[in-house]
Design goal:
alpha/beta; single chain; five-stranded mixed beta sheet; 4 helices
Length: 107
């Protein structure tokens, strides 16, 4: 099923608004390991109750690599914001945290 979902996302979908779903830490870890989203231009992950560990998983896992823009709006955490801003995985991604751009795509 995940391979089929990845094929659909990578071929057709450019923007995914996955806001307000309360994915939490476990959801963040699943997204962080999935390659289904890598062809998206925009992924909105605002208001999903990601904690610091979830945000760090998203910043370091391969799941968000290749996305043009990712939006987060979680509780303010200096560690989480720093992990997103300094992420090598997100080096080619523009990252917004609580409405402010904290990292710009390097490519």
């Amino acid at each position: 099923q995940t391979k089929a979902a990845a094929a659909i996302v990578s071929k057709k979908l450019e923007e995914l608004i996955a806001a307000s779903n309360q994915y939490g830490e476990e959801g963040a870890k699943l997204i962080a390991q999935s390659t289904a989203f890598s062809k998206l231009k925009t992924l909105d992950l605002t208001k999903n109750a990601f904690n610091k560990a979830g945000i760090i998983a998203l910043a370091t896992g391969p799941g968000l690599a290749g996305i043009g823009k990712v939006l987060f709006n979680e509780r303010d955490s200096d560690d989480a914001r720093k992990a997103l801003a300094e992420s090598k995985t997100l080096a080619n991604t523009t990252v917004y945290f609580r409405g402010k751009q904290i990292a710009k795509a390097k490519s």
